[in-house]
Amino acid sequence: MSLAAYACHPARSRGRRHAEPPAPTRDAFQRDRDRIVHSTAFRRLVYKTQVFLNHEGDLFRTRLTHSLEVAQLGRSIARALRINEDLVEAIALAHDLGHTPFGHAGQDALNACMEGHGGFEHNLQSLRVVDALEHRYPQYDGLNLSFETREGILKHCSRANAERLEAGEPNGVARRFLDRTQPGLEAQLCNLADAIAYNAHDIDDGVRSGLVNVEQLGEVELFELYRREALAEYPQLEGRRVLYETIRRMLSAQVYDVIDATRAALETVKPADADGVRNAPPLVAFSETMQAQSNELKAFLFRNLYRHPQVTQTTDQAQQVVRELFEAYLERSAEMPVSYADRRDRHRAVADYIAGMTDRFAMREHERLTGRRGIA
């Protein structure tokens, strides 16, 4: 399939921070994807969780399965839009590399610990992982990924951090947060595919956990519409098959909606190339109707799942584990590996070390350092 003019073409990539000769059998974005898959940080995602912690069940989503789902959705949409599938996959597989153990609870706790020391943003941490924290190659730190992949990984960034990044890399990946331009279509697509995947798998995991049920989900227009449609076609359907078929139809509807809405936006703007996309308004989006339905679903999940007393009790415990780990390593840096203990910026070294932990390693280290089991 030939790429559209507005896609990110690997031959026109803005390149790597450290120049390298091209690979004989792979283009720049395929090479990025392969480097991400072989990284240590990527392997750790299998034991980093989303909503439910690693010890709560074997079938709940992890950061790894979530990243694979985002990549699958992203590639499907990218193919229809004739944008770069390999770049979409690379961004999708790398977008959560900087996430802490214990999901957003760990991130919030680490950000609080780093108050006054630069804070903590998981998107920025993902960029730190691929730019500096992976140590695999003799010539440089990090994975030395292409500009376009790094641009997509840095999905959000505060102005203060953008200014700091810009000072070290003029006109680099943080520039768009200062001049209010957009990333390429592939990065925009990964952002939306991330949200689509979240909504679908949090419904599945929420029902599996018993914290929400199909009857409650009947309040949500997007879910109920496709549940009724599934039962109208398959009246004998029952149990988890109803849930799976409803989610499958929801996903398909959202994918087709994004394709149609984005094609319409592209037809209106007619960007001549990837830089034309960057200077246009956001182009990858839902229709207004689907966006409203998606927002309703997010609000439902926030009320009934993310703020469920059982979830908040566990996340409170997880935040305490992170805070106590941070304090322990700050006081006793020798408890960390030498590569972290010897760094001048002790606070950032501790944050980097904790952010790289899996759930189970963080719990094990907490018990070793405090003598207490932090999460029931």
Automatic annotation (TrEMBL):
Q: Which residues form the HD domain?
A: 63-199
Instruction: For the region Disordered, give the residue spans.
Output: 9-32
User: Could you provide one GO biological process annotation from this protein's UniProt record?
Assistant: dGTP catabolic process
Superkingdom of origin: Bacteria
Query: Which InterPro entries did the record assign?
Result: dGTPase, dGTPase-like, dNTPase_2, HD/PDEase_dom, HD_domain, PHydrolase_assoc_dom
Similarity comment? Belongs to the dGTPase family. Type 2 subfamily.
Q: What is this protein called?
A: Deoxyguanosinetriphosphate triphosphohydrolase-like protein
Please give the organism.
Variovorax paradoxus
